[in-house]
Amino acid sequence: MSTPQNTIWGELFKPNSRPIAKVKSGDRLVMQTVSHEGILPDQGDTATFFDNGGIPQNSKSRISPNQILSDQLTVKAKVKKTGPGPHVITGPIYVEGAEPGDVLEIKTIAIAYRSPYGVISNRHSRGALPGEYPLNNAPIYSKVIAIDAKREVGVFQPQNNLPAIEIPLRPFMGLMGVVPADVAEAANSIPPGLYGGNVDIQLLGRGSSLYVPVQVPGALFYAGDPHCAQGNGEVALTAIECSLTPTFELVVHKNMKLTAPMGETKDAWIAVGLDKDLDEAMKKSVREYLQIADEKYGMTKQDALMLGSAAIDFDVSQVVDIVKGIHGTIPKQMFRSLEKT
Asked: Between the chain's N and C termini, which has fewer beta carbons within 10 Å?
């Protein structure tokens, strides 16, 4: 549960953090997560923020105070923000048998919605166009999005009396990972790394897996930054940030070699590249794709590079988390003939 005892705000857990639960490899757990949007200091009083429909006020997006998720209010009142990041993170979970050098597979089995709203925010000096937006040098522009969980759409209300736009929801956890061995890397929840963390890849929703190298004994798994929908790039700064309840299955792999996070869906492998320099993130993603083509399908890396140029899409995951992300989507169907050999 996302109680004050089970959450941290602004930073990641450390190697000496007290586990809130212990599980075995293959166990499943249901984990409540809390969105930070609506409770951050620049959004003022939370009830007023939602009652006004965001900043600037938009009455069409209004959420009444009795609809606010109580855990958000509790976190704001009782959890000290101890790091520069905005994220509220639930954990850590100790996975028995997980040791440094192993790989933890984080399977997202299911995701349920916790509240009838989400929030998209753009802040001064942040996002893909820092210094240009928000307009008129405003410190923040936040929009409340009504969530229709049954139809899985978010209702985006334009400011200038245009008709509402419905956004298809694709819920996923923006932040999933293990505790980094280097305590300095845990000081800020924003940048992703070898340990996973804030990777913000919208393909990692229901039915996906994220593989991360274990850094410390027990792995110490955590999750946060729940999203209802996100476009590749996440250009304003945030996705539709909304509180979710995911169901995970945690699996320890003993003989799997991995030098960076890697993703998987039913239809594709996801080659993850992370770096402060977007060009370097691209190189890392391409190299991981070449490794996948070599290890899983027996292709030479030279041939895989040629194939990738013709048939593999490399997309910008996000450019707003200090460490930028590129992910290559490698369709499994294209390699079916190689599996037979």
From this structure: C
